[in-house]
Specification:
CATH superfamily of the largest domain: Glycogen Phosphorylase B
CATH class of the largest domain: Alpha Beta
Number of helices: 17
Number of domains: 2
Strand order of the largest sheet: 3-4-5-2-1-6-7-10-11
Strand content: 15-25%
CATH topology of the largest domain: Rossmann fold
Structural class: alpha/beta
CATH architecture of the largest domain: 3-Layer(aba) Sandwich
Number of strands: 17
Oligomer: single chain
Largest sheet: 9 strands, mixed
Radius of gyration: 23 Å
Helix content: 25-40%
C-alpha cells in the first residue's frame, strides 16, 4: 500500500509530544511490512535539521490556492532516520512556520489550515494517488474536508482517510474566516452541526470535529480512551459527534519504538542489561546517583519523567515527592511545564529540597538523563487525571522499572496491579490506583515500596514480568493495516 502521513510533528526532527513518536514509529513499522510510506510535515525553522539526511528542494513552484490568490511554496525532501519526508515551505509574509516554536500563536488555526491545503495541493500537483492518507490531531482535521469537498473533484479521487486523535483537549476551535482562506467558502453549509460547527460554540468551527465527520475511519490511542471519549467528559464536548460516527471509531494502543528504547543497546546509558541479567540495571542506578549527587544508600528510587501540567496530576506528583521522602525512599523528577505558574511552583520546590540528598528535581528536559532515569530507577509514577495512551509506562516496563499508575486511558490497558488485577499473577506488571486523590496514590506507593523493601525477590519477579510484555508497534501496526484495507475497499 501507498500511505501518506500528514502531521504537524515527527520524531526526532519536530517533536513536542507523543504524536511525534507515533508518526515516526508507526511509519517505520508499516515500512518494514513492505508498504510505501511518505510523511508530509511543515518546514519549521526550529526543527532538528541534524536529523535530516539529504535535504533538498524536490518541488520548486507549488502555488497553493489561498484566499483571493495563491501562496508560493517550495517542497523539500529528506530522510529522517530512514523515513521519506516532504517539508512544506511557504514563501509568504504570513511567515507560517518561521516562528521559533511549533505551536502557541494566535493564528495557529490558519497556519495548519494552510499546511493541510498545501499538503493536498502537493499530492494533486505531483500526481500522487496514495491508497491511504493518515492524518493526526486537530492540526490536520481539515485534510479530509478539503480532500472530499475540493480535491476529489479535481482528480485526487483514490485516497481514503484515517484520522487519529491523540488528545481530545486541543481541538482547533476557530472562526469562519478559515472557510474563505481555504476557498471552501459556503459558511451556511459548513457551519452546520452535522459538519464543522463546534458543538459548544455555535458561531465557531472545530477542526477535530471536521476530521471526525469527514474521515473514513477515526482512531484514538488506546481502547479505554476510546470508551472514555464516547461516554465521559474526556471527549471534551465531542462525545455526541463520536456517537453519531461510532461505527467508524476505535481505539488502538500506541506502540513503542523498541529500536530506540532498548536497554540492551541503548547508547545513552552506561551499562546495558536485559531480563536475564539485571545486575547492570543496578549499576545504572549507582550511575544515576553519581550524576545527580544522591545519597548512596539501601533505598528505592521513585521517578517522574514527563510534562508537568494539569493532565499529569501535578498535585499528586508534588504529594508523591514528600510521601517518598517520608517513607525512606529517593525521588527524581525530570520535566517542565508550558504553564509558567506550574513551572515556578516546581522551581520553588526544587529550591526548598536542594540540600536533600534523597531528592533531585530537574526542571527542564534532557534526553540522555531521561534514558538514565528509566534505566536506574526502581519505580516510576504516572498519576494522570487522563492519559490517552502514555508512553512513559511502556518505556518503564521495557527498562525493568515498575510503573505506579492511575487507572485511566492507556494506563488501564497496559498496567495490571500486582495485588488486585484479574490477570493471572504471572501477568501482573505494576501498581494501580483509581481515585485522583492522596489516599489513592499513597496506597499504591506504599505497596510498591513495601514489596521492594520486604520481599526483594518478589519485586525482582515483578520487574521481569513487566519486561516480558511486548508493546512494540508490531501488533498495533497490523491493526492499522486492517483498518486501511477495510476503508480502501469501500
Amino acid at each position: 500500500m501507498h500511505i501518506v502521513m500528514i502531521a504537524s510533528e515527527c520524531a526526532p526532527v519536530s517533536k513536542v509530544g507523543g504524536l511525534a513518536d507515533v508518526v515516526s514509529g508507526l511509519s517505520r513499522e508499516l515500512e518494514l511490512r513492505g508498504n510505501l510510506i511518505e510523511i508530509i510535515l511543515p518546514k519549521y525553522d526550529c526543527m532538528r535539521y541534524d536529523h535530516i539526511w539529504g535535504l533538498h528542494v524536490a518541488y520548486h513552484d507549488l502555488w497553493v490556492p489561498w484566499g483571493n490568490g495563491a501562496i508560493h511554496c517550495s517542497v523539500w525532501f529528506g530522510f529522517v532516520h530512514g523515513r521519506k519526508c516532504f517539508f512544506i515551505d511557504p514563501h509568504s509574509h504570513d511567515n507560517f512556520f518561521n516562528r521559533d516554536n511549533y505551536y502557541g500563536y494566535p493564528d495557529d488555526a490558519m497556519r495548519f489550515a494552510f499546511f493541510s491545503k498545501a499538503a493536498l495541493e502537493f499530492l494533486y500537483k505531483t500526481g500522487k494517488q496514495p491508497d491511504i492518507i493518515h492524518c493526526h490531531d486537530w492540526q490536520t482535521g481539515l485534510v479530509p474536508v478539503l480532500l472530499y469537498e475540493i480535491y476529489e473533484a479535481q482528480g485526487l479521487n483514490h485516497p481514503r482517510v484515517c484520522y487519529s486523535i491523540h488528545n481530545f483537549r486541543f481541538q482547533g476551535i476557530t472562526g469562519t474566516d478559515i472557510l474563505s482562506a481555504t476557498q471552501l467558502n459556503r459558511p451556511e453549509y459548513y457551519q452546520h452541526y452535522d459538519r464543522l460547527q463546534d458543538n459548544t460554540h455555535p458561531t465557531a468551527l472545530n477542526f477535530m470535529k471536521a476530521g471526525i465527520v469527514y474521515s473514513n475511519f477515526i482512531t484514538t490511542v488506546s481502547p479505554t480512551h476510546a470508551w472514555e471519549a464516547l461516554h465521559t467528559e474526556q471527549g471534551y464536548g465531542l462525545g455526541d459527534t463520536l456517537h453519531i460516527h461510532k461505527d467508524k471509531f476505535a481505539g488502538i494502543l500506541n506502540g513503542l519504538d523498541y529500536e530506540v528504547w532498548n536497554p540492551e543497546i541503548d547508547p545513552l546509558i552506561p551499562y546495558h542489561y536485559n531480563i536475564d541479567n539485571l545486575d547492570n540495571k543496578y549499576a545504572n542506578k549507582e550511575a544515576l546517583r553519581d550524576r545527580l549527587l544522591l545519597r548512596k544508600d539501601f533505598k528505592p528510587i521513585i521517578a517522574f519523567v514527563g510534562r508537568l501540567d494539569v493532565q499529569k496530576g501535578v498535585h499528586l506528583i508534588r504529594h508523591a515527592i514528600f510521601y517518598t521522602l517520608q517513607n525512606g525512599a529517593q525521588f527524581i523528577l525530570l520535566g517542565n511545564s508550558p504553564e509558567s505558574n506550574i513551572n515556578n511552583e516546581f522551581l520553588q520546590l526544587k529550591a526548598e529540597l536542594n540540600d536533600n540528598e534523597d531528592c533531585h528535581l530537574e526542571i527542564g528536559f534532557d534526553e540522555e538523563l531521561a534514558h538514565l532515569i528509566y534505566a536506574g530507577s526502581d519505580m516510576i509514577i504516572m498519576p494522570s487525571l487522563y492519559e490517552p495512551c502514555g508512553l512513559t509506562q511502556l518505556i518503564a516496563l521495557r527498562y525493568g522499572t515498575v510503573p505506579i499508575v492511575r487507572s485511566v486511558g492507556g494506563l488501564a490497558d497496559t498496567i495490571f496491579d500486582r495485588d488486585f488485577s484479574d490477570k493471572p499473577i504471572t501477568a501482573r506488571n505494576g501498581y494501580v490506583f483509581h481515585e485522583a486523590d492522596y489516599m489513592g496514590i499513597e496506597s499504591a506507593m506504599q505497596r510498591a515500596i513495601g514489596l521492594w523493601r520486604d520481599y526483594p525477590e518478589h519485586f525482582q519477579r515483578l520487574i521481569k514480568q513487566g519486561m516480558q510484555y511486548n508493546y512494540s508497534w508490531h501488533r498495533s501496526g497490523q491493526l492499522y493495516l486492517d483498518i486501511y484495507e477495510k476503508i480502501r475497499n469501500k
